[in-house]
Predict the 3D structure of the following.
Amino acid sequence: MEGRPGIGWLAGSVLLALAGGLLPDSVIADVPVDLELVLAIDASDSVDGAEYALQIGGLADAFRDPAVHRAIGGGPLGSIAVAVVEWSGRYQQFVQIPWTRLDGAAASAAFADQIAGLGRAFDSGVTSISGALDFAAAQFGNNGFVAARQVIDISSDGVQNQGRRIDLAREAVLARDVTINALVILNEMPDLEEYFGERVIGGFGAFVMAANDYPDYPEAIRRKLLREIGETPVSRLGGGVGQLAGLPSDAGSRPGPP
């Protein structure tokens, strides 16, 4: 399957078009970055207050990590764009932090402070993975950025129990050339890693990463961001499944679903 054009090609095309006055205002506004990333956080009923706090704190700490800063700066353009959404039931999704460009330690630290200050969007709700995917994919439209890679990073501790079929939502996302990665918490469902590997993830380099419980989440999301942003290369041939406790991130590698 052909991937997205290289980011160098995209950036060069934009610059040439700008010089020639060939782009409309709506296109000129798009800023080239190495990656567009939607972080989709589970806020359903199965996530209690303490577990939600561990998610938010762990995500904030990850964006304060110097290794993550190096990964962001290590791409061809040295910047990424990130948005944070929360999700629960079929009609329960909310943009907690709109698209933000990160280009170094200062921007990442400020972004981390925004994450740390978040309040929970939903007090109750069931689990609609398909709704989360549909909503996350829509965030890439007219977001002001252009990148060679677009990725949805969805976290969850449960299976779908509301909404349209996951495979239909997944196919719609993949048709837009958007990759779906997942971080699962195995505290209540030990086989959740396989569920997401078989039914949810897909696209270029897709993978699942697992944490045994919420206290493991901070390290898991840090490692996941490093892999997604690019400090740890991902083969074009496929993704993999790796459990945080007991297995390295590339253990049990297998191609993502077609």
About this structure: Residues 231-258 have pLDDT under 50 and may be disordered. The chain has nine helices and nine strands. Residues 33-243 form a domain with the Rossmann fold fold (CATH 3.40.50.410).
